[in-house]
């Protein structure tokens, strides 16, 4: 377990957009429940990148890619459902941005 470092994500996004949008314009908050449901198709606390309604870029913490085992758990689309997946398969399937988030 680790604590999310939103500043690292903000810096990554700033670099990704080639500094076109000022850092102070980035707002690292969760989307409102209604908007999240509309974009993802999943209810609050059930959001996962697997099967989303909208093609939203995925960011994975660099630390997950460095775990001893090639395996991690992620949300399964329901509040009480989790999916276990090989990290290598996830990286191949979703081509996420790997960012130091913690």
SSE class: alpha+beta
Strand content: 5-15%
CATH architecture of the domain at 31-99: Alpha-Beta Complex
> Over all CA atoms, what is the radius of gyration?
14 Å
Q: How far from one another are the termini? A: 9 Å
Write out the strand line-up for the largest beta sheet, numbering strands in chain order. Answer: 1-4
Low-confidence stretches: none
Protein name: YbaK/aminoacyl-tRNA synthetase-associated domain-containing protein
GO molecular function, one term: aminoacyl-tRNA deacylase activity
Domain YbaK/aminoacyl-tRNA synthetase-associated: 27-90
Organism: Aegilops tauschii subsp. strangulata (Goatgrass)
Secondary structure elements and their pairing?
Elements: H1 6-16, H2 33-40, E1 59-61, H3 62-65, E2 72-75, E3 82-85, H4 87-94, E4 97-99
Parallel strand pairs: 1-4
Antiparallel strand pairs: 2-3
Structural summary, described in words:
Residues 27-90 form the YbaK/aminoacyl-tRNA synthetase-associated domain. It holds the Pfam family tRNA_edit. InterPro entries: YbaK/aa-tRNA-synt-asso_dom_sf, YbaK/aa-tRNA-synth-assoc-dom. The chain is α+β, with helices and mostly antiparallel strands and 102 residues long. It has helices spanning 6-16, 33-40, 62-65, 87-94, and strands at 59-61, 72-75, 82-85, 97-99. It has 4 helices and 4 strands; from the N terminus they run H-H-E-H-E-E-H-E. Strands 1-4 form a two-stranded parallel ribbon. Strands 2-3 form a two-stranded antiparallel sheet. It is globular. The mean pLDDT is 93.
